[in-house]
């Protein structure tokens, strides 16, 4: 499950507010040389008497600073979408201004410049606003749906069709998927996935997020699709049980190795090449026991011999 972090608008204010007027950007305009942004009216009025950026003192232009500023529509759209009611209030101020001063109206200005753009045409939404959407079955996975119908998991009379819904803009994709599951009685072994065109949507997306992320301009219902797929089951890993004939550790190898290392000594102790005396000698005691070893004469020396492929020593 994805966790969403809510950020207060006050934390973003330094990136959304004009340093000259202290308000949110209106007709955001960026200086080409240093990429600092301001309101259009603010920076134009400032550059009438200055040639340097008001934030970093970088020279905008030697003689004509107005040639080095550009309108930043992307930044302005971000501000309108992040600040609730800003676009609506700005459009109302423009309409009131041109109504009070008809002579000041710009003949070649856009409808947004004159304040004639409605908020729904701009694509901005509020959380409590109602969104009209259409939902239909995604045709690319029709075989899965057909198989589910043939298996009796889904009713045949509930065939996919275009449905229209009115939902609040704060509604998430997860809630929409749950609504479709309950409406169609989809079994738990299937999952319902919501898509915009052919792209699956994240469960934590709201309808307002979809309107901002994808190119929907509210000239019709928000077109969404859904598909039903088998849910993925998580496999449980079982511990491996060693079989009786399988060596899972090096203990037996060590034991066999120690046996091999001890076997030549045992063979040498009982083999005829060492030739123990017929009668026990009176050698020194070892661990309280009488030793059967014979003391070597001064001139005796040992020679090497081989017993069963291993080296041993014999007395000569």
Automatic annotation (TrEMBL):
Pfam families: RAWUL (PF16207), zf-C3HC4 (PF00097). It comes from Malurus elegans. Transcriptional repressor. Binds specifically to the DNA sequence 5'-GACTNGACT-3'. Has tumor suppressor activity. May play a role in control of cell proliferation and/or neural cell development. Regulates proliferation of early T progenitor cells by maintaining expression of HES1. Also plays a role in antero-posterior specification of the axial skeleton and negative regulation of the self-renewal activity of hematopoietic stem cells. Residues 263-281 have a biased composition (Low complexity). Residues 18-57 form the RING-type domain. One of its GO terms (biological process) is chromatin organization. Transmembrane segments: none annotated. GO terms for cellular component: chromatin; nucleoplasm; PRC1 complex. Its main location: nucleus. GO terms for molecular function: DNA binding; promoter-specific chromatin binding; zinc ion binding. This is Polycomb group RING finger protein 2. It comes from the Eukaryota. The keyword DNA-binding applies. Residues 305-316 have a biased composition (Polar residues). Keywords: DNA-binding, Isopeptide bond, Metal-binding, Nucleus, Phosphoprotein, Repressor, Transcription, Transcription regulation, Ubl conjugation, Zinc, Zinc-finger. It is found in: Nucleus. SMART domains: RING. Residues 244-316 are annotated as: Disordered. Exists as both a monomer and homodimer. Component of a PRC1-like complex. Interacts with CBX8, RING1 and RNF2. Interacts with CBX7. Interacts with PHC2.
